[in-house]
Each structure stands twice: as structure tokens, then as C-alpha cells.
Design a protein that fits this description.
The chain is an alpha+beta fold. The protein is built from 4 helices and 5 strands. A hairpin with a 2-residue loop joins strand 2 and strand 3.
């Protein structure tokens, strides 16, 4: 169920990435992600009464908004060229949730990402790679946060302290087992 939920979440993420373009309303892109998840879960586990659908609403956070921006239905904000957009969403089947996220830069077609946007994207990429390598039995969560802090600093970026990565359980998105990004 986790694997299928992750396949659905990743498909929805692809749909949202394709929808995020200058001039498109944030609400419309988020609605496409939610609709994709709801459509895909209709076709799975139809015997018996199994809950399925959105585990986390589609969010598109622009520039300095760190994350989890899910617009109200009255929001008219549009994406524009030069925006750094963080997309996150989640699907679940029988309470087994999978979340997916990515960061994209809205630049001119084929243009290279440069400047602060490139710094931020590089810091995020290398921090994620370091965490994947450090996430091993016996390692302390402080090793992960220290690595992220050093990498961010090397790109002259500031981590968002207090953000946590957490264990998922059935019907529980935010378990007590977590890694909190805290300043050393």
C-alpha cells in the first residue's frame, strides 16, 4: 500500500510540475495535484471499505515561503518567471501515506539557474544527498542536522530551523520519532 501510494504521489507531483508555469494561478496547479491523486486512488483497492485519497494537500510555496502553502479558493496568486517553487503533496491508501516533493525554478526555457536560486537549489540537493548517506543505524540525528547546516553555509544559505522530518505510521503523518533541524 505504501508503494502504490508513493507511485500515485509521484505521478501527481509530475502533473503539478508540468502545471507550474508563469501566469498560472497557484490554486489551479494545486487543484491539479489533488485531482490527480483522487482520480488515481479510485482505481485501486475497491473491494471492501478502505479509506484512500489525500494524505497531504498539494502545496506550492513560492520563494521565501518555506513550505506547506495551500492556497484558499479565493487566492489569485500566480507564478511568475524567476520564482523558486517548492511543491509537496501526499497520497494514502488505507492510511499508509506517501509524501512527495520537489523544488523547481521558473526560468526562461533552457536557461541555466544562476544566482541565489542556484545556491538554494544546490544547498537543498546536497543536503538531501548527505542525509540519505548519513541515515544509518547508529548515527545520531544531530549528525544529519550538522551536515545540512555546513552544506547550507557553504552556499551562503540559512536552513529553516525547527523543521522536522518524521516517521510515518498508518493514519499518522507526524509521529514522535523525528529529526528536528536545530542550530548547533
Amino acid at each position: 500500500k505504501y508503494r502504490l501510494a508513493s507511485e500515485i504521489a509521484n505521478e501527481a507531483l509530475r502533473v503539478v510540475v508540468e502545471a507550474v508555469k508563469p501566469g498560472v494561478r497557484v490554486l489551479d496547479a494545486c487543484d491539479k495535484g489533488d485531482a490527480c491523486i483522487m482520480e488515481k486512488v479510485k482505481g485501486v483497492f475497491n473491494k471492501g471499505k478502505i479509506e484512500k485519497g489525500l494524505a497531504f494537500p498539494t502545496c506550492c510555496s513560492i520563494n521565501n515561503v518555506a513550505g506547506h502553502f495551500s492556497p484558499a479558493v479565493t487566492d489569485t496568486t500566480e507564478f511568475k518567471e524567476g520564482d523558486l517553487v517548492k511543491i509537496d503533496l501526499g497520497a494514502h491508501i488505507d492510511g499508509f501515506a506517501s509524501q512527495a516533493a520537489t523544488t523547481i525554478f521558473l526560468g526562461a526555457e533552457g536557461a541555466e539557474v544562476t544566482g541565489r536560486a542556484a545556491d538554494v537549489m544546490s544547498a537543498v540537493y546536497y543536503s538531501a544527498e548527505a542525509c540519505i548517506r548519513l541515515l544509518r543505524a547508529g548515527n545520531k540525528s544531530t549528525e544529519l542536522t550538522h551536515a545540512m547546516e555546513k552544506i547550507a553555509d557553504s552556499f551562503n544559505c540559512q536552513p529553516v530551523f525547527g523543521v522536522s522530518s518524521h516517521q510515518l505510521k498508518q493514519f499518522l503523518l507526524d509521529d514522535t520519532e523525528h529529526v528536528i533541524l536545530s542550530k548547533h
